[in-house]
Design a protein that fits this description.
The structure holds 2 protein chains of 2 kinds. Chain A is mainly alpha-helical. Chain A has helices at about 1-30, 45-50, 50-85, 90-95, 105-115, 120-125, 140-165, 165-175, 180-210, 210-215, 225-235, 240-260. Chain A has a single domain, classed as Orthogonal Bundle (MetI-like fold). Helices cover about 75% and strands about 0% of the residues of chain A. In chain A, helix 3 runs antiparallel to helix 4, helix 8 packs across helix 9 (about 180-210) and helix 11 (about 225-235) runs antiparallel to helix 12. Chain B folds into 2 domains: about 35-130 and about 265-315, D-Maltodextrin-Binding Protein, domain 2; about 140-260 and about 330-355, 3-Layer(aba) Sandwich (D-Maltodextrin-Binding Protein, domain 2). Helix content of chain B is about 40%, strand content about 15%. The longest helix of chain B has 27 residues, at about 1-30. The chains are: A mainly alpha, B alpha/beta. The interface of A and B includes residues 60 and 215 of A.
């Protein structure tokens, strides 16, 4: 009996947290999305979302988020694999994570300098004979900086998954005559797929609603749903439309979680 | 137990001493005295020497605080944590603060130096009769450019020149719907306060044609980018232009011949004011011709103080980039409050312009 009471007591902080900071905000966003700019109840925001402007924006958000996630994964998996093979793996892992402690804006401003017309990157291109070119305010620089910012979040779960892999499984595969590639394809990758999935989730979802970088690095040449939300809340003060976009983002995220498999199988 | 009690007692004694010390310090700096004045201004927007001079002349202690956006300033005044006596909002914010009932009416009899102000800048639509505000500095939206980076044989005198194909990928635009849509409207010869949907659409189509020349649409970073010669041309405020020109002497500024926006930063007295008399004294002091001249030389924005011009260096007063000729000033317009609905439409079109790819 007493056990049950104390258990319920422990539940209080969790329940409060969920209600105040998860359920209430989502409901508020949903509530605001039903008001037009004059404060009248209407569905006009939802209608507006299905105009070419916002649909195109959604598509381009998806495209860039996909690019960022795919490139992060391509770089992160081999890196994580390599890290688990090193002697002081946790030290190396820490070094990769350290940049994520630095403020995002600071890193963005640093990249403005690096990618600038007279920046380090162009000096290097000049030196190897390619000649300087415009790097700042291009799709390339936007994707590059985003990948740089998100990659620690991709490496961590993959690293953990690889680290938990029982080495005897690899020996068994080798014993049974599997080649290196087959071992990877049939044993290592399937066993670390959960790490890959959580990596994709933590990168793809925030990448969908990036906003500061679109101005600082891409010079507003890339417009994502996040940019539109920022503009509606801060400039237009059309909270209804901003909330409607947010509602669609939340829906997309739930859909995405469902597709990538939210449930964890095994360990 | 005894030790614990002693430790507790020590903490109490130290706390009491600290509280007394804080009170003393506050009193000595004038925070609780009646003869203080809290001024709330944009960062680096006054010659600090003038603050000391005002303090010496009047014996009033000034507490000077700064803000970096109109919205932030209004929020702080609304919350009322600090009792600001004088603040300096831009013109559209004056209108908004009057609507929200945040301002006190000015007592013009306490402001004899008002007569020094140029009549052109008084009695504007955002505050008829200057009941709540008096202009502190003014400026324009225009084109900042670096002649050393421009292709040969090109020049810039107006908005229309920006569409020159020679400027491919060379222009930085400011990230503001009113500014950029206004530029589109002005180029076509319309008012930048136009709300006719057909004309706004026309302006958008015109802006879309500019896309190949646009390098980026940025915020305050444009100063840094222009100083570092990342781009040859930027559309922005004359105040920023003065800052950029200070850092990089090659750079020039022009008020477009088709017309443009005219903006003001204004003295107001918020409802939170505790020392209303001193607030008037301070505003009056800042409008003194010699004081205003010295301040303008420091800040380098354009002063609305006509009498001050005589005390300023000639090359500064005759600089048409910052004191455009009357014919051009005629073409400058102040932003009107277009209402939420129209503002939303401006932003919607601006978003479409940003989405448009070459």
């Amino acid at each position: 009996m007493e056990n049950k009471v104390s258990k319920n007591l422990y539940m209080i902080p969790y329940a409060l947290w969920i209600i105040l900071f998860v359920i209430a905000p989502i409901l508020l966003v949903l509530y605001y999305s039903f008001f037009d700019i004059e404060g009248n109840f209407s569905l006009v925001n939802y209608k507006n979302f299905f105009t070419p402007v916002y649909l195109q924006m959604t598509l381009s958000s998806f495209w860039y988020a996909f690019l960022i996630t795919a490139i992060s994964l391509l770089v992160a998996y081999p890196t994580a694999y390599l890290l688990t093979r090193t002697k002081h793996k946790h030290l190396w892992l820490l070094l990769i994570i350290v940049p994520s402690w630095i403020n995002l804006l600071l890193k963005a401003y640093a990249f403005i300098g690096i990618f600038g017309a007279y920046g380090v990157a162009n000096n290097f291109l000049e030196w190897i004979g390619i000649g300087s070119r415009q790097l700042l305010f291009t799709d390339f620089s936007f994707v590059f900086v985003s990948v740089y910012i998100f990659i620690p979040f991709m490496i961590l779960p993959i690293f953990n998954a690889l680290d938990n892999l029982n080495p005897s499984l690899l020996y068994a595969a080798k014993d049974l005559g599997a080649s290196g590639w087959t071992t990877f394809r049939r044993v290592v990758f399937p066993l670390t797929i959960d790490g890959v999935k959580s990596g994709i989730q933590v990168v793809f979802i925030p990448a969908l609603s990036l906003f500061m970088l679109t101005r600082l690095i891409a010079g507003n040449r890339v417009i994502t749903l996040g940019t539109a939300i920022e503009q509606h809340f801060l400039v237009t003060q059309d909270w209804g439309m901003g909330s409607t976009i947010a509602v669609f983002l939340i829906l997309i995220m739930f859909l995405f979680m469902g597709l990538t498999g939210f449930r964890k199988r095994g360990a | 137990m005894k030790n614990l009690f002693r430790a507790f007692l020590a903490i109490v004694i130290v706390s009491v001493i600290l509280i007394v010390a804080i009170n003393r310090l506050n009193a000595s700096q004038g925070f609780s005295g009646s003869d203080t004045l809290t001024v709330y201004n944009w960062g680096d927007y006054i010659d600090e020497e003038l603050i000391s001079r005002f303090q010496e002349e009047t014996g009033i202690t000034i507490i000077y605080e700064t803000f970096d956006s109109n919205e932030a300033m209004m929020t702080k005044i609304q919350q009322g944590g600090t009792s600001y006596d004088v603040a300096v909002p831009s013109e559209y914010m004056v209108e908004k603060m009057v609507e929200e009932d945040l301002l006190l009416e000015l007592d013009h009899s306490l402001l004899p130096n008002m007569q020094n102000l140029d009549e052109r800048f008084l009695d504007m639509a955002f505050d008829p009769g200057n009941r709540y505000s008096l202009p502190y500095f003014w400026g324009t939206v225009g084109i900042v450019f670096n002649p050393t980076l421009l292709p040969e044989g090109t020049e810039i005198t107006g908005w229309d020149d920006l569409w020159n194909p020679a400027f491919e990928n060379q222009i930085l635009l400011i990230d503001g719907a009113r500014e950029i849509m206004g530029m589109g409207l002005n180029t076509l010869g319309y008012s930048l306060n136009d709300t006719n949907p057909a004309r706004l659409q026309e302006a958008l189509d015109k802006l879309k044609e500019l896309t190949p020349n646009v390098k980026a649409i940025v915020g305050d970073e444009n100063k840094l980018l222009m100083q570092n010669e990342e781009a040859a041309i930027a559309v922005g405020w004359s105040g920023d232009a003065a800052d950029i020109m200070w850092e990089n002497e090659d750079i020039d500024y022009v008020v477009p011949e088709e017309g443009s926006n005219l903006w003001f930063d204004n003295f107001v007295i918020p409802k939170t004011a505790r020392n209303v008399e001193a607030a008037h004294q301070f505003i009056n002091f800042m409008m003194d011709p010699e004081v205003a001249a010295q301040n303008t030389e420091y800040v380098s924005y354009s002063t609305p103080n006509k009498a001050a011009l005589e005390f300023m260096p000639e090359d500064m007063v005759e600089d048409e980039r910052f004191y455009p000729e009357p014919e051009l000033t005629e073409l400058l317009e102040v932003y009107e409050n277009l209402g939420q609905q129209n503002l939303a439409y401006y932003n919607e079109l601006f978003l479409q312009f940003k989405m448009y790819r070459k």
